[in-house]
Design a protein that fits this description.
The protein has about 220 residues and is mainly α. It has one domain. The chain is built from six helices and no strands. It is flat. The two termini are about 45 Å apart. Keywords: Membrane, Transmembrane, Transmembrane helix.
């Protein structure tokens, strides 16, 4: 349980906003989370738009769904929307990503690299703005023109997307890696290698630090 509690914040996407990053600014991280919410909302709206009856159709022609069927449908739509949001966020993150480049720099190469990063940043914000506006407008048009039952289904599926992103996925990754670490530590060979790599190195550093004041 202790390992899971330590790993859960490491995989939580919203807790990542509190971390300091030299390569990705706070506003980029906030914008990517907002973009994921817009993607989940618009994807759910797209599904319920295609599955809802037309304005002139008889509502009695559609067979009513059971509560279990509605929960399964909304859960599947929510999970698919969340996964699609992850893909889009990752693709857009790569557009503005500034990875460290280790080489012999000249003044000209520095200016060129800065121009490349600036162009990528402009492209990122332009794509982000257009995509966010399209998602928001489509979602608002959907909510303004659908039945109440479809709006309730959209709300539930969007909530499932948030639940998957905020609780289910980080908890699953923390449980999986925590279990793998616990199983690996059952091996005496792996435990000895870990202790030799980390604990003995830490002890040597402590011993060296204690000798320095005496010298």
């Amino acid at each position: 349980y202790r390992r899971v509690a330590l790993l859960f914040p490491a995989f939580h996407p919203w807790i990542a906003l509190l971390r300091l990053s030299l390569l990705t600014s706070y506003k980029v991280r906030v914008s990517l989370i907002f973009l994921k919410l817009c993607t989940a909302a618009s994807t759910s709206a797209l599904f319920f738009t295609s599955s809802s009856p037309g304005p002139d159709s008889d509502p009695n022609c559609k067979k009513p769904q059971t509560l279990v069927a509605q929960l399964v449908q909304n859960t599947v739509v929510g999970v698919v929307s969340a996964l699609l949001g992850d893909v889009i966020v990752f693709a857009l993150f790569l557009v503005q990503n500034r990875s460290p480049i280790e080489k012999d720099w000249t003044e000209q190469s520095k200016r060129w690299q800065l121009r490349v990063w600036k162009c990528r940043a402009v492209a990122f914000w332009l794509i982000w703005l257009v995509y966010s506006l399209v998602c928001l407008v489509y979602t608002m048009l959907f909510l303004a023109n659908v039945r109440l039952v479809d709006a309730q289904g959209w709300l539930m599926s969007t909530g499932m997307s948030l639940l998957q992103d905020l609780v289910i996925l980080p908890l699953f990754l923390a449980l999986a890696l925590g279990l793998m670490a616990s199983v690996a530590l059952l091996s005496k060979g792996i435990r000895r290698r870990i202790e030799a790599k980390w604990l003995e190195g830490y002890a040597d550093a402590e011993e060296q630090g204690s000798k320095e004041p005496e010298e």
